[in-house]
Amino acid sequence: MIKCIEKQLCDFLPGGHFSGAPSQSDIDRTKFAYSTNLGCEHHFEDLDISQKRRPNESLHHHTSVLLLKRNREQLKRWYDGLTKEEEVCYGKRHARVARH
Fold it and tell me: Looking at the whole model, is its pTM more than 0.70?
């Protein structure tokens, strides 16, 4: 087991390609990246749950729900910035679409 781990992590162990401290340019380039894969896994988990709840819905429906779920704060800020006339216009347009 130790040999397997050493073989898989040889680039990160002392003397390996990535064993030293990262340069400032590397840090700047990767500061937005997740340190684990959990950020990506949440999207697949949400899609799986959504498909189990509503198995007959289209993929378009599921992705729309997930986008709204993940971006609700930005959507709320956008909606709060609308004028009353724009709110009424969007409300009437979407109410008409929802009836059909």
Answer: no
